[in-house]
Structure formats: C-alpha cells, structure tokens
Amino acid sequence: MSEVHPGTDGERYVPYGERTGNESIVYFTRDLSAAGLRKLYSRVNGMIQGKVAIKLHTGEKYGPNIIPYEWVEELVKKDLPDATIIETNTFYEGDRDTTEKHLETLQVNGWTFCPVDITDAEGTVDLPVKGGKWFDHMTVGKTLPTYDSLVTLTHFKGHTMGGFGGSNKNIGIGCADGKIGKRMIHARNSEDPGLAWSVDMEELMERISESTKATIDYFGKHICYVNVMRNISVSCDCEGCLAEPVVTPNVGILASTDILAVDQACVDMIYALSEEDGAAMRERIESRHGHRQLSCMQELGMGNRKYILLDVDQDDKRIQPADAVEGVVPFVELPIVAERRRKAQEAMAAMEASLE
Questions:
Q1: Residue 241: predicted pLDDT
Q2: Which residues contact 196 (CB under 8 A, 6 or more apart)?
Q3: Residue 354 has pLDDT above 90, yes or no
C-alpha cells in the first residue's frame, strides 16, 4: 500500500471566482434570536422526519459563547417537540470527558428542556467512510444510528487546532465517540499520551472531514445544517470561560442542506468583513490551515463550494457575503460574561500555582 500524505494549501483562501462545480442554496438572516433560528430552520427541514437528533455543542460549564439554550428550547417546543439533543464525551480531560461529568455540565448550562443522549455512554458503533484516505470507518456513539434524521445546529467560531468550527467540525469531532473515534482523528489511533494531539494542519482537516462523511452518508437526505455566527471567538466552545475574548462582530444565521456550502459561506463572510473586524478569525483559519476542511469536503463529494446566498430578511433576494456583513457593529461583551471569564481565569491561575 502506498504511503498516504495530506493535501496542501490549507492556509490559502480560495476566492469565489476560482471555485468549480455547481451552486447550492444557502439562506441567511441577520435576526440573531429564537425567531431567526426557527425561520432559517423552516427553510431546510423538508426531509427531517422520524426520530430526530439535534447535534449541537452544549459547551463547558458556564461557556459564554454557546448558542443560547433559550433559542434551542423554543425551536424544540414549537418545531421539534419529539427531538433529542445528542452529544458525545470529550477526548480531553474536563467537564465532559465522562458521562457523569457531562450530565452535570448539561444541567449547569440549561440543557434540561428535552432529552439529551450522550450517544457513546453505553458504547460505540462503526460507520463506513466511503472514499477516505485516512479511514475506512469512523467510530461513533452507539445510539447515533438509532435516529432517522439529524438537525446540525452549529455555533460557528474559531478553533485552536481546526482554524474554524462549522458544521463539519460539529459533526466530525462531535459525533466521533470520546475514546476511540476522537483518538483516531487526533492521535492516529495511538494510545501513547505523547501523541494525543499530534495531528494538525491539513491532515487534521482531512481526518475531521472523513469522520463527518461517515455520519452524513448514514443520514443521506435526512439532514440539514444551521450555522449561528454569533459570539465568534477564535477559540472553540471547548475552552469555555477561558476562550479568547470575542473581537469579531456578530453576523447572523445561515442554513442549507449542503454542509460544504454553509461552512464556505460562513468563511466567506469572515473574509468579507473589514480588515479590523475579520483579522483575528482570518489569522486563526490561515495559521491552522483550516481552509483544507473546505477543499477536502469538495474532494470527498460532500457538497459544493459555490452557492446562491438568499437573504430571507429581504424576500429571498440574492446577495453577496459583503452585503450580509454590511453594517455589522463591534462586539460588546456582557458584564456577566466578563465576570465569569475573570473568575475562571483566576481559578485556573490558582490551580497552576498550587502545582508549582
């Protein structure tokens, strides 16, 4: 078997004119609220049926940037009354690396209004990866295949290793089980602690995308994607209150039945922001070679990098990413969030001092 090598150019943003392929539909609203979320979901839910799972990042304790649980509660009660939120335990040590701790964190963060299934609590199952370079299967939570449809509800933000976290990261990392699947992605399946986070750059983006493909192939047409561009820290929600302060303006909500198109549209909006407003996120994506997520998804046949962007606030008028971000205002952190961040940082500093 020939040696496998990762792709290249993950640090380079590809302008729209250089992209190939067909166009998918992406919907957009500036309405960052429960109503806006429901409005966007209604545009992409045509094939959501049967037993429904909602995949979202429920966050570390008191995480300041996660999608507000009140928004999701309204969506569930009014549009998805029988749905279940799904999660998996984490690979890293923290508030969610065991089922017991994970359940406590869910309570703290307000995810109590509907069932929550930690899908790997009782074991795992393998799903095939078709056309993969690194995997022929991905190990996911045991109960994931018991659902008929998947609503992917994603807080779009940066990511310490992935550059950005969109629907691809939400599924690829978030559906892989905590002890096997995530190790396959982050450590090349090695149990050597020294290699626990050894995969990065283009190889990591490819492994995440192949993991995602296993899940979206399973659900087929019975899946949709909603990305919320709010509280866009360069840090993932995995970092909770220790996430880097938000400096990127809030933008809006995007939705599609094409995972690549919706993630690409979010990235395009980051690049359409002014130099000052978009600098932090652009640097985070490029320095981690995060654009490889997008090109890899295209190579795997997971969707289209070209899209028609429809503004639902203006009767589905076709717009450009620059139109979507026009008039955004600087992000202002709420005082309660700043106080939580301060206390979390003090606690971390105290813990580190005690270990010296």
A1: 81
A2: 91, 183, 186, 187
A3: no
Is the pLDDT at 347 greater than 80? The verdict is no
Extents of the domains making up the chain? 16-355
pTM, entire model: 0.95
The structure tokens 């070209």 sit at 306
Q: Which residues of 99-119 are buried (b: 16+ CB within 10 A; e: fewer)?
A: bebbeebbeebebeebebbbb
254 burial type by CB count under 10 A (0-12 exposed, 13-18 middle, 19+ buried):
buried
Which structure tokens are listed for 99? 């089922």
Q: Return the pLDDT at 2.
A: 67
Contact 164/284 with Cβ under 8 angstroms? yes
